[in-house]
Structure prediction request, 353 residues.
Amino acid sequence: MPDASLRPSGAETTTTDRTAELSATGLRVEFPTRSGRVARALDGADLTVRAGEVVALVGESGSGKTTLARSLVGLTRPVAGEIRWEGRPMDRSTRGLKALRRHVQLVLQDPLGALNPRHTVYESVAEGLRIHKLVARSGRTETELVAAALSSAGLRPPESLFLRYPHELSGGQRQRVLIAGALAVQPQLLIADEPVSSLDASIRGEILALLLKLRDELGLGVLVVTHDLGLAWNIADRIAVMYLGRVVEAGPTEEVLTDPQHPYTQALLSVVPEMDRLEPIVLRGEIPDPTRIPSGCRFHPRCPALASGEADPVADACRGTSLPVLSGDPNGHRCACHLVDWRLSTDPEEVSS
Ligand SMILES: Nc1ncnc2c1ncn2[C@@H]1O[C@H](COP(=O)(O)OP(=O)(O)OP(=O)(O)O)[C@@H](O)[C@H]1O
Ligand code: SF4
Ligand SMILES: [Mg+2]
Prediction:
């Protein structure tokens, strides 16, 4: 299934510090709701993203992907947990966050909403350069830097777009302008929230190829937020599967998607159109409201393994014993599931790690 045509070839020209690392540990984000209950949008989320790799954060709508992405750049404040950039805790002062966003850029979910309708393409892309005062120290003019960023995002000739407004662009062009605006400040990490969900299939491929090219040529680290496992398979080096505010399975993409361990990952994968050799597993009901996180394993009310009797040896634990937060350690293939733990303890050969 991986689409080799998306992977660009050519020599690497590294411009990014490949040791750069952004990590979240035990992140909890709560939102008050009108009913007076608290929505636990993140309930112990761990994740690490490093320069030079593409990590896909996948999960159904409402699993907490955007909340985690926003938290990673300091737009949402967690009630507990820690975010570290290059080993140091996030500095939440205005100055600290500005410095972080010089290196970690977020491309928002909705390109039309994210671009100011009254700003031309030129102004949108130049904004970051001006905020971070990057023109003076670059030795180039602002126009040259804006043009270079648009070219890097595949918008050529860049000058032809300078004076256009968002409503005069196609969906794919708008997405590229957002990416260009992020690239203009020469970040080390790019967090892209659903970068292609609103685009046609042909444009999707182009944007995904662009993200891979940026990884290979600039050493950029990319966190791609998506609900599409097929997309993750095509571009990600690693994958983290989220369910109801937590990562439930994580590891190298190839391992997670050829040998998924968590019943949730197995179900998501079974309905990817390209996985036609798998029997589709249709999950019961919707993802629960985060004001009412189920006891025990948070996935238990919808778990096909529990419903079918496959998880009978651990059924009490599934319903009553909560699972530890899955570590964000970027190495290895890990999964938070009583059944997987039980199988490992009874037959360590059965489950790969
Ligand atoms: N500002 C907010 N106030 C109240 N609840 C919120 C807020 N933001 C997010 N939530 C809730 O937190 C949960 C996670 O939302 P989030 O947007 O992070 O999910 P997502 O995985 O990005 O979903 P999607 O795929 O639909 O974009 C949802 O139940 C959502 O309703
Ligand atoms: S812990 Fe139990 S309920 Fe949860 S995913 Fe594993 S088998 Fe299913
Ligand atoms: Mg979202």
Residues 65-66, 109, 193 surround magnesium ion (ligand 3) (CB under 6 Å). The chain has two domains: 16-242, 262-346. The radius of gyration is 21 Å. The longest helix spans residues 201-218.
